[in-house]
Design brief:
Distance between the termini: 45 Å
Helix content: over 70%
Radius of gyration: 17 Å
Order of helices and strands: HHEHHEHH
Keywords: Membrane, Transmembrane, Transmembrane helix
Strand order of the largest sheet: 1-2
Length: about 160
């Protein structure tokens, strides 16, 4: 029952994401999505699994929910955060969006742990594993700013609008 509620919430989030207007160009959305998937996989593989911060569940249904969260939900949240941070003019609005979406990613991480899809290892404190959320959003935002600067110099952003 918990998995059904989690997946239903995921679908509502994805539909809301695709139904709202974005300030990012389509190339930026695709680049951001792929970038977040690569960064998230690298962090999960190199840091979380190699340092034994988390232990993933071996049940097949948990595996599918974890992959769905890693490949679709996390990139949706991060790209949405970057989009809103880029469209905000004031620094306090950028920080408020950053903190809101960081809290949303931490909530997603806590839900995965509550459902025993990911389990905390005993040698690490649980708060250490939550460092992924702010780092992921900050790295994606900085990479998207650099990508936007490169596309702006080439004029590619203005050709398709």
């Amino acid at each position: 029952m918990d998995h059904i509620l989690l997946v239903t919430g995921f679908f509502i989030l994805i539909v809301t994401f695709f139904a709202t207007e974005k300030s990012l160009h389509l190339l930026e959305l695709i680049f951001g999505w792929l970038l977040v998937v690569i960064l998230h996989d690298a962090y999960f593989t190199l840091v979380s699994l190699n340092l034994k911060m988390v232990v993933p569940s071996m049940r097949l249904s948990d595996f599918f929910v974890r992959i769905f969260a890693h490949k679709f939900i996390t990139p949706t949240i991060v790209v949405w955060a970057v989009d809103l941070m880029n469209s905000s003019r004031l620094a306090r609005h950028k920080w408020s969006w950053y903190l809101f979406f960081t809290a949303l990613l931490i909530l997603l991480n806590m839900m995965l742990r509550r459902l025993d899809i990911l389990k905390d290892a005993s040698i690490w404190e649980p708060w250490v594993t939550f460092s992924k959320a702010p780092l992921l959003i900050a790295a994606a935002w900085l990479a998207m700013l650099a990508y936007r600067r490169v596309l702006g110099k080439d004029g590619a952003l203005h050709e398709f609008r």
